[in-house]
From TrEMBL, chains A, B:
A zinc finger (C4-type) spans 59-74. InterPro entries: DNA_Rcmb_RecR (IPR000093), Rcmb_RecR (IPR023627), Rcmb_RecR_Znf (IPR015967), TOPRIM_dom (IPR006171), TOPRIM_RecR (IPR034137). This is Recombination protein RecR. SMART domains: TOPRIM. Residues 82-177 form the Toprim domain. May play a role in DNA repair. It seems to be involved in an RecBC-independent recombinational process of DNA repair. It may act with RecF and RecO. HAMAP family: RecR (MF_00017). Signal peptide: none annotated. Keywords: DNA damage, DNA recombination, DNA repair, Metal-binding, Zinc, Zinc-finger.
Length: 200, 200
C-alpha cells in the first residue's frame, strides 16, 4: 500500500482496515492521524485497547459485554427482572440503552437464524433464554430483532420455543420512524404502518 | 453513549471516534468488532500501535514517517537525488509512491499556507526546502500540491522563494482524471483540460 512506509506502518494500516467502516484508504488516513497525534491519540488508544482486552468480559447471564460479570444491567436491582428484551448483538443492546425506553434486563442472542449463512438454533444463545424465561419472576419476553427476513424468522422460532414457558412474547412495533418523510420511506414500511394504524 | 458498557468501553469508543472516517456510530461498531475478535484484531492492533509509537519517527531530511532516519526513500541511492517532489502531507507522499510514477526524493511541507486558518510560511517546512534546493545536485522541484486555493497559493509562494536557487520549479498537470466522464466532472477541471489540450 505504501512501499516506503515500513512494515510497522503497513501492519497498522492493514489492521485498521479490518475495522467496520474503514476501508484501505481511510485506514491510511487513520494511521497518519494516529502517528501525527501520538500523545493525544496513538498512545491513549493503545492503552485503551490493552485495558479493554484485559478487563472486558461477556456477562454469563445476558451475554452483554462489561468489566463485571454479571454485567451492570443484570446486577442492577432497580432494573425490572420480569422483563427480558432479546437483541441480536451487543450493539443493539447499546442502542436500546441510548433510547432509554426500557428498564428491564436483556438477552443477547449472538446472531440470527439464517438458512443462507447456515446459522442454526444451536449457534445462538437460545437454550439459556428459554431457561431464563422459565423462571417464574419473568412475565414478558420482548423480541427486539431487526425487521429483516432473518430477524423475523428468528422471532417466529423464538416465539415457538418460548410458548411452553407461559411468558408473554411481544415484539417491537412497526411503523413510520420519527422524522420519517413518506416520500423517502420504502413501500414495506408504509404498508406496515398502514396496517398497524391507530386512532389519532 | 452506552450507559451500561462501563468506562473502559466508553473510553475506547471515544478514542476511536477521533479517527478520521469514524463517527460516534461507526466507532461503536468498531469497538464491538474489536471486542468480539480479540485474538485476530484487538490484541494485534494494540501491539501494532505500541510498536508504531515506539519505532516510527520523522525523517530529518524530507519530513516523511519511517522507522529509519533518514527514511528509506532518502537513504535509497537508486532514487534520483536531482528531483525533489514537494507534497503537503505524508498521505500525499504515499499516494505518489503507490502511483509509482516518481523515482526522485520528497519534501513534506507539513501543511499549506492558509489565510483563513492563519497558517503562515513559518509554520511549514519551507526553509529546509530552500536549503535542499540550493544544493547543486538538485535540478528540479516538482510541486505536487492540491488543486485548491490554499494549494495554489502555496505553490506560487514556493515558486517565488525557490526562484533564487536556480532550480526548475514545475507542477503536476491538470486535466481529466483517468476514467473521468465529462458528465460528472466539475466545470473548473473541464475548463483547465480544454486550456491545456494537446495533439491527439
Amino acid at each position: 500500500m505504501a512501499a516506503s512506509a515500513g512494515p510497522e506502518i503497513e501492519r497498522l494500516i492493514s489492521l485498521l482496515a479490518k475495522l467496520p467502516g474503514l476501508g484501505p484508504r481511510s485506514a491510511r488516513r487513520a494511521a497518519l492521524a494516529l502517528l501525527k497525534r501520538r500523545d493525544q491519540l496513538l498512545n491513549p488508544l493503545s492503552e485503551a485497547l490493552a485495558d479493554a482486552a484485559a478487563r472486558v468480559k461477556t456477562c454469563g447471564v445476558c451475554g452483554s459485554l462489561d468489566t463485571q460479570d454479571p454485567c451492570a444491567v443484570c446486577a442492577d436491582p432497580e432494573r425490572d427482572a420480569s422483563l427480558i428484551c432479546v437483541v441480536e448483538e451487543v450493539g443493539a443492546l447499546w442502542a436500546m440503552e441510548r433510547a432509554g425506553a426500557f428498564r428491564g434486563r436483556y438477552h443477547v442472542l449472538g446472531g440470527l437464524l439464517s438458512a443462507l449463512d447456515g446459522v442454526g438454533p444451536e449457534a445462538l444463545r437460545i437454550g439459556p433464554l428459554v431457561n431464563r424465561a422459565a423462571d417464574e419472576k419473568v412475565r414478558e419476553v420482548i423480541l427486539a430483532l431487526p425487521a429483516t427476513v432473518d430477524g423475523q424468522t428468528t422471532a417466529h422460532y423464538l416465539a415457538e420455543r418460548l410458548a411452553g414457558t407461559g411468558v408473554a412474547v411481544t415484539m417491537l412495533a412497526r411503523g413510520v420512524p420519527v422524522g420519517g418523510e413518506l416520500d423517502w420511506l420504502d413501500d414495506g414500511t408504509i404498508a406496515q404502518a398502514m396496517r398497524a394504524r391507530r386512532p389519532a
